[in-house]
Amino acid sequence: MSRKIIAIDPGTTDGAYVVWDCSTSRVIECKILPNDKLLEFIKQQEFTTEVFCEMIACYGMAVGKETFETCVWIGRCEQICADRGHTFARVYRLAVKVHHCHSAKAKDPNVRQALIDRFGVVGTKKAPGPLWGVASHIWSALAIATFAADTTAHLTGVDEVAEMSTKTSGS
User: Fold this and answer.
1) Per-residue pLDDT reduced to its tens digit, 45-95
2) CA–CA gap between residue 134 and residue 131 (Å, rounded)
3) Residue 98 and residue 104: Cα distance in Å, rounded?
4) What are the domain boundaries of the chain?
5) Candidates 3.30.420.10, 3.30.428.10, 3.40.630.30, 3.40.50.300; correct CATH number of 4-92+134-165?
């Protein structure tokens, strides 16, 4: 059976997810959903699902209401995973940027370009590429999925996967 990962880029009102097939290095499914629909999607997944979700980190700057609301949704997602027996790991953006771009100073466009360089062009409707359907916040979810696949491939247990993600967080 092929290993599949669900990666989530959470938000205040909606979140993006990618279902990533580790054996084929392909996006199986990707969408942006309202948060309540995203939670329903996770509830419907198989028992062995691994979920990797971007986590908020403090970099010394003031944050607003939206940041705290996003944290609430992350917590709700984590609780659903715990209730369903899914592996849940928080992933910090800094670790993802360093993994893909080898620089903590990388920005979202740099990460997007690194993914295109690695997997190929998005393509067009008439000639879809391997990343067809990836847009907007889905790019962040894809970056999380590939980070998770790359950094946890050697791990065997659910607890090891969750622990490794925390260690590579760069928080």
Assistant:
1) 976 689 999 999 887 788 889 999 999 999 999 999 999 999 999 999 999
2) 6
3) 5
4) 4-92+134-165
5) 3.30.420.10
Burial of 91 (0-12, 13-18, 19+ CB in 10 A): buried
Burial 95-128 (b: 16+ CB within 10 A, else e): bbbbbbbeeeebeeeebbebbbeebeebeeeeee
Alpha helices in 86-155 (DSSP H): 93-101, 108-119, 138-152
For residue 57, CA distances in Å to 4, 45, 151, 154, 159 come to 26, 27, 20, 26, 22
Whether residue 158 has pLDDT greater than 80: no
Amino acid at site 68: F
Q: What is the pLDDT of residues 110-150, one digit of tens each?
A: 999 999 999 999 989 999 989 999 999 999 999 999 999 99
